[in-house]
Amino acid sequence: EAGVAQSPRYKIIEKRQSVAFWCNPISGHATLYWYQQILGQGPKLLIQFQNNGVVDDSQLPKDRFSAERLKGVDSTLKIQPAKLEDSAVYLCASRLGGADNQPQHFGDGTRLSIL
Amino acid sequence: AQSVAQPEDQVNVAEGNPLTVKCTYSVSGNPYLFWYVQYPNRGLQFLLKYITGDNLVKGSYGFEAEFNKSQTSFHLKKPSALVSDSALYFCAVRAGAGSYQLTFGKGTKLSVIP
Q1: Are A92 and A6 in contact (CB under 8 A)?
Q2: Is pLDDT of A2 > 90?
Q3: Minimal-distance CA residue of chain B relative to A102
Q4: What is the mean pLDDT of each run of 10 residues along chain B (114 residues)?
Q5: Of the candidates B43, B92, B100, which has its C-beta nearest A91's C-beta?
Q6: How far is CA A60 from its chain centroid?
Q7: What pLDDT is stored for residue B88 in this prediction?
Q8: What pLDDT does A100 receive?
Q9: In sequence order, what DSSP letters do the residues of A60-88 get, joined into one string?
Q10: Does B50 touch chain A (CB under 8 A)?
Q11: Does A106 reach chain B within 8 Å, measured CB to CB?
Protein backbone atom coordinates (compact mmCIF):
# COMPACT_ATOMS: atom_id res chain seq x y z
CA GLU A 1 0.00 0.00 0.00
CA ALA A 2 1.14 3.56 -0.59
CA GLY A 3 2.47 5.32 2.47
CA VAL A 4 1.73 8.74 3.93
CA ALA A 5 2.68 11.42 1.39
CA GLN A 6 3.96 14.84 2.43
CA SER A 7 5.07 17.87 0.47
CA PRO A 8 7.22 19.78 0.17
CA ARG A 9 10.18 17.85 1.59
CA TYR A 10 12.13 21.01 2.35
CA LYS A 11 11.15 24.65 2.84
CA ILE A 12 13.24 27.69 3.65
CA ILE A 13 11.54 30.96 4.55
CA GLU A 14 12.31 34.13 6.44
CA LYS A 15 10.79 34.87 9.81
CA ARG A 16 7.36 36.48 9.70
CA GLN A 17 6.58 34.81 6.37
CA SER A 18 3.84 32.22 5.92
CA VAL A 19 4.20 28.57 4.98
CA ALA A 20 1.89 25.62 4.35
CA PHE A 21 2.47 21.88 4.40
CA TRP A 22 0.36 19.20 2.78
CA CYS A 23 -0.34 15.62 3.82
CA ASN A 24 -2.12 12.76 2.10
CA PRO A 25 -2.68 9.86 4.51
CA ILE A 26 -2.86 6.18 3.73
CA SER A 27 -6.11 5.38 1.96
CA GLY A 28 -8.87 4.53 4.41
CA HIS A 29 -7.09 5.90 7.46
CA ALA A 30 -9.59 7.92 9.45
CA THR A 31 -7.17 9.39 11.97
CA LEU A 32 -4.53 11.93 10.98
CA TYR A 33 -1.86 13.56 13.12
CA TRP A 34 0.57 16.46 12.70
CA TYR A 35 3.75 16.39 14.77
CA GLN A 36 6.60 18.85 15.24
CA GLN A 37 10.06 17.29 15.64
CA ILE A 38 12.75 19.69 16.76
CA LEU A 39 16.35 18.55 16.24
CA GLY A 40 17.43 16.21 19.03
CA GLN A 41 13.93 15.64 20.35
CA GLY A 42 11.09 13.21 19.83
CA PRO A 43 8.00 14.18 17.87
CA LYS A 44 5.49 16.38 19.67
CA LEU A 45 1.81 16.16 18.74
CA LEU A 46 0.36 19.37 17.35
CA ILE A 47 -3.10 18.26 16.27
CA GLN A 48 -5.13 15.10 15.73
CA PHE A 49 -8.08 14.70 13.36
CA GLN A 50 -10.68 11.96 13.31
CA ASN A 51 -12.11 12.14 9.79
CA ASN A 52 -12.62 15.91 9.36
CA GLY A 53 -13.07 16.73 13.05
CA VAL A 54 -10.42 17.85 15.52
CA VAL A 55 -9.87 15.42 18.41
CA ASP A 56 -6.94 17.11 20.15
CA ASP A 57 -5.29 20.45 19.39
CA SER A 58 -4.21 21.26 22.93
CA GLN A 59 -0.53 21.68 21.95
CA LEU A 60 -1.13 23.66 18.76
CA PRO A 61 0.04 27.32 19.06
CA LYS A 62 -3.22 28.65 17.73
CA ASP A 63 -2.04 32.23 17.46
CA ARG A 64 0.14 31.23 14.51
CA PHE A 65 -0.58 27.63 13.56
CA SER A 66 -3.71 26.32 11.87
CA ALA A 67 -4.68 23.02 10.31
CA GLU A 68 -7.59 21.67 8.39
CA ARG A 69 -8.85 18.42 6.93
CA LEU A 70 -11.91 19.57 5.08
CA LYS A 71 -12.98 16.39 3.29
CA GLY A 72 -11.62 13.96 5.84
CA VAL A 73 -8.71 12.89 3.63
CA ASP A 74 -5.90 15.36 2.83
CA SER A 75 -4.75 17.85 5.40
CA THR A 76 -2.82 21.12 5.42
CA LEU A 77 -0.86 22.70 8.25
CA LYS A 78 -0.13 26.42 8.07
CA ILE A 79 2.16 28.71 10.01
CA GLN A 80 1.53 32.44 9.84
CA PRO A 81 3.73 34.26 10.73
CA ALA A 82 6.72 31.99 11.23
CA LYS A 83 9.20 32.46 14.06
CA LEU A 84 12.78 31.25 14.34
CA GLU A 85 11.76 28.60 16.90
CA ASP A 86 9.44 27.00 14.33
CA SER A 87 12.48 25.50 12.58
CA ALA A 88 11.77 21.78 12.76
CA VAL A 89 10.61 18.76 10.81
CA TYR A 90 6.84 18.56 10.51
CA LEU A 91 5.62 14.99 10.39
CA CYS A 92 2.22 13.76 9.32
CA ALA A 93 0.97 10.37 10.47
CA SER A 94 -2.19 8.39 9.92
CA ARG A 95 -3.87 5.49 11.63
CA LEU A 96 -6.50 3.06 10.50
CA GLY A 97 -8.73 3.65 13.50
CA GLY A 98 -11.25 1.09 14.57
CA ALA A 99 -9.10 -1.21 16.71
CA ASP A 100 -7.56 0.86 19.46
CA ASN A 101 -4.12 -0.72 19.18
CA GLN A 102 -3.32 0.13 15.56
CA PRO A 103 0.06 1.87 15.14
CA GLN A 104 0.55 5.23 13.49
CA HIS A 105 2.24 5.34 10.07
CA PHE A 106 4.45 8.35 9.35
CA GLY A 107 5.35 10.30 6.25
CA ASP A 108 8.93 11.45 5.59
CA GLY A 109 8.19 14.93 6.85
CA THR A 110 8.80 18.50 5.75
CA ARG A 111 11.99 20.11 7.00
CA LEU A 112 11.34 23.79 7.69
CA SER A 113 14.21 26.24 8.09
CA ILE A 114 13.50 29.80 9.24
CA LEU A 115 16.11 32.43 8.39
CA ALA B 1 0.60 13.24 32.51
CA GLN B 2 2.35 10.49 30.60
CA SER B 3 6.06 10.49 29.85
CA VAL B 4 8.85 8.40 28.36
CA ALA B 5 12.50 8.38 29.31
CA GLN B 6 15.26 7.07 27.08
CA PRO B 7 18.29 7.43 29.35
CA GLU B 8 20.95 6.94 26.66
CA ASP B 9 21.46 9.51 23.94
CA GLN B 10 23.70 7.07 22.07
CA VAL B 11 24.39 3.35 22.12
CA ASN B 12 27.38 1.84 20.36
CA VAL B 13 27.57 -1.89 19.68
CA ALA B 14 29.78 -4.09 17.54
CA GLU B 15 28.24 -5.88 14.60
CA GLY B 16 27.05 -9.35 15.60
CA ASN B 17 26.75 -8.47 19.28
CA PRO B 18 23.42 -8.23 21.08
CA LEU B 19 21.96 -4.76 21.49
CA THR B 20 19.64 -3.17 24.02
CA VAL B 21 18.02 0.26 23.84
CA LYS B 22 16.42 1.30 27.12
CA CYS B 23 13.03 2.86 27.74
CA THR B 24 11.05 3.59 30.89
CA TYR B 25 7.61 5.12 31.03
CA SER B 26 5.12 6.78 33.30
CA VAL B 27 1.39 6.61 32.62
CA SER B 28 -1.93 6.26 34.40
CA GLY B 29 -3.53 2.90 33.89
CA ASN B 30 -2.43 0.22 31.49
CA PRO B 31 0.12 1.39 28.92
CA TYR B 32 0.19 0.87 25.20
CA LEU B 33 3.90 0.89 24.27
CA PHE B 34 5.55 1.30 20.88
CA TRP B 35 9.00 1.36 19.33
CA TYR B 36 9.74 3.29 16.15
CA VAL B 37 12.93 3.66 14.11
CA GLN B 38 13.97 6.74 12.12
CA TYR B 39 16.58 6.74 9.37
CA PRO B 40 18.17 10.04 8.24
CA ASN B 41 15.74 12.33 6.44
CA ARG B 42 12.92 9.82 6.80
CA GLY B 43 9.78 9.52 8.89
CA LEU B 44 9.34 7.10 11.76
CA GLN B 45 8.81 3.44 10.95
CA PHE B 46 6.82 1.21 13.28
CA LEU B 47 8.83 -1.69 14.77
CA LEU B 48 6.64 -3.29 17.42
CA LYS B 49 4.01 -2.71 20.09
CA TYR B 50 2.87 -4.01 23.45
CA ILE B 51 -0.82 -3.82 24.22
CA THR B 52 -1.52 -6.83 26.41
CA GLY B 53 -0.53 -10.48 26.74
CA ASP B 54 2.99 -11.87 26.59
CA ASN B 55 5.62 -9.59 28.04
CA LEU B 56 8.05 -10.43 25.23
CA VAL B 57 6.95 -8.84 21.97
CA LYS B 58 8.51 -9.65 18.61
CA GLY B 59 8.59 -7.12 15.81
CA SER B 60 10.12 -6.24 12.47
CA TYR B 61 13.73 -6.86 11.39
CA GLY B 62 14.43 -9.29 14.25
CA PHE B 63 13.77 -6.78 17.01
CA GLU B 64 11.95 -7.66 20.20
CA ALA B 65 11.03 -5.83 23.37
CA GLU B 66 10.31 -6.89 26.91
CA PHE B 67 7.56 -5.28 28.94
CA ASN B 68 8.29 -5.14 32.66
CA LYS B 69 5.40 -3.70 34.63
CA SER B 70 7.16 -3.56 37.99
CA GLN B 71 10.08 -1.63 36.55
CA THR B 72 7.86 0.34 34.11
CA SER B 73 10.29 -0.51 31.35
CA PHE B 74 10.04 -1.55 27.72
CA HIS B 75 13.59 -2.18 26.50
CA LEU B 76 14.26 -2.90 22.84
CA LYS B 77 16.55 -5.81 22.05
CA LYS B 78 18.10 -7.69 19.18
CA PRO B 79 20.27 -10.81 19.51
CA SER B 80 22.73 -9.89 16.74
CA ALA B 81 23.18 -6.32 15.54
CA LEU B 82 23.63 -5.38 11.88
CA VAL B 83 25.36 -2.27 10.53
CA SER B 84 22.05 -1.46 8.81
CA ASP B 85 20.39 -1.21 12.25
CA SER B 86 22.23 2.08 12.81
CA ALA B 87 19.48 4.68 13.20
CA LEU B 88 17.51 6.73 15.72
CA TYR B 89 15.11 4.75 17.91
CA PHE B 90 12.07 6.18 19.66
CA CYS B 91 9.98 4.66 22.42
CA ALA B 92 6.40 5.91 22.79
CA VAL B 93 3.52 5.41 25.23
CA ARG B 94 -0.24 5.86 25.26
CA ALA B 95 -2.43 5.61 28.31
CA GLY B 96 -4.35 2.61 27.01
CA ALA B 97 -7.84 2.18 25.68
CA GLY B 98 -9.66 5.37 24.74
CA SER B 99 -6.56 7.55 24.87
CA TYR B 100 -5.29 9.01 21.65
CA GLN B 101 -2.17 10.99 22.48
CA LEU B 102 1.13 9.22 21.86
CA THR B 103 4.07 10.59 23.85
CA PHE B 104 7.57 9.98 22.49
CA GLY B 105 10.93 9.81 24.19
CA LYS B 106 13.75 11.98 22.91
CA GLY B 107 15.31 9.13 21.01
CA THR B 108 18.46 7.00 21.19
CA LYS B 109 21.00 6.97 18.41
CA LEU B 110 22.22 3.43 17.75
CA SER B 111 25.53 2.99 16.01
CA VAL B 112 26.56 -0.51 14.97
CA ILE B 113 30.28 -0.69 14.34
CA PRO B 114 31.56 -3.10 11.65
Answers
A1: yes
A2: no
A3: B49
A4: 93 97 92 94 92 91 96 97 97 77 94 96
A5: B43
A6: 11
A7: 97
A8: 64
A9: S-TTTEEEE-TTSS-EEEEESS--GGG-E
A10: no
A11: yes
